Amino acid sequence: MSNPLFFTIPLIAIPILYWLYTYPKNKYKQTNLVLYVHDSLTGDDKSAITIAGKDGPTTSIMHFGTLLVHDDSVTLSPDPRSKEIGRAQGMYINSQLDGKALYMSFSIMFIDGEFKGSTLEIQGADPFALKEREFSVVSGTGYFRFVRGYGIMTTEFMDIQNLKAIIKLNITVKHF
Ligand SMILES: *[C@@H]1O[C@H](CO)[C@@H](O)[C@H](O)[C@H]1NC(C)=O
Question: What GO cellular component term, any one, is given (predicted)?
């Protein structure tokens, strides 16, 4: 009992064991998602309307000061007929004086698949003339509680005449 090691070994070992036990739980998980958003201002699959602008609802989203509301289909593949797993609901506001960038604020509401019932909150600038636009993921619910992240947006398909677009969102989020 007079050997000091008898006391010091447990004193060192206990904090180490505690750290090993709790360490993995404190680590963030990272999830990557690739989603396609189908946005259409015309036709049977119309999912977005301009509601305000310099000429009222007839103003083009390409003009500064125009507000658009959308409820777009979200799929896992670029094919618009592929299985819908969510909706992208919110708004775009043309917020660049020359008309070349939107401000986006919308929720991705997962209605099917792995993340059914959860949401992601997207917010940021969309200078849509650029090939790749980075945006932020500010929060989420359900599986995505406490989430933070970013995404890269690219235009997969664009029909300017009929104002239809398929947007690829490549999202990387960290969460508990
Ligand atoms: C998604 O973005 C990450 C970088 O954030 C990249 O490494 C990955 O290849 C991209 N995936 C797709 C399918 O574009």
Answer: apoplast
